[in-house]
Amino acid sequence: MRLDLTDRLISGNKWFKLSGYLQQADAAGCTGVMSLGGAHSNHLHALASAGARFNFPTVGLLRGTECQTPTVADLKALGMQLHWLGYGGYRKRHEADFWVPWQQQYAHFQPVPEGGGGLLGARGCAPIIGLIREQLAAIGWADYDALWLGAGTGTTLAGLVMAETGAHPVYGAMAVPASHGVQAQVTQLLGQAGLADSGYQLLDACRGGFAKVDSELVSFMQACEQQMNIPLEPLYTAKTLFALQQHVRAGLVAQGSRLIFIHTGGLQGRAAALAAFQ
Questions:
Q1: Which CATH number, 3.10.350.10, 3.20.20.370, 1.20.272.10, 3.40.50.1100, labels domain 121-277?
Q2: Does the predicted TM-score (pTM) go above 0.85?
Q3: Is 41 tagged catalytic?
Q4: Which of 84, 96, 132, 154 is most exposed, with minimal Cβ within 10 Å?
């Protein structure tokens, strides 16, 4: 499922995670939207792109100290107002009063959790299941056996589990270490939706940490791109494909299984991720 083709700038799963927050902001009469992320954030890039296209101001609260990356350059060009929080300041993002000073500075701005997380973000991803079902006939399938996708916060995965209601298992290849709390976030989101903590499986695919890229992964990604003629990126999609290959080789996927692999976009950060590896 090529969500990377959803939109040239508001790409992949980012549009789906943002949709509920943008609808909420519009209903509440908010004048702008603000959120958080790093210097290569796909989420902030999508938010800034949405603001530029639909003519609303955006604010980005960034991790670390000021630096220049292709993503940061795009955020500025798209009109996003940036604030660098340092690392200690960014770690406070989960505290109950984190947004208070920012809402005082940017009155009537809709705050959006890191990565478009939260229940609104998860529910925004539910329509992806409908898009998948609409396209099954085109490939000659009446149904499918499982979904596979990368997981950074677990928001998209949780939304798919909600929409599936147990019909098909969802496999999430974690692009971050387990210590980042993806499992706890998925459990919390499903609980907030009134659902059991089931219907999915999380797999370690981070290869030593978030944004860690190695020669084996890059070679695998390039081989896949040449074979499929589909652009990938190394932080989420390529790691997930690699994890799926390992799963198949380990005999954990029944022969003849019909798997839907979700390309979650993120291509705007591809060049920088590969440059950092080189």
A1: 3.40.50.1100
A2: yes
A3: yes
A4: 96
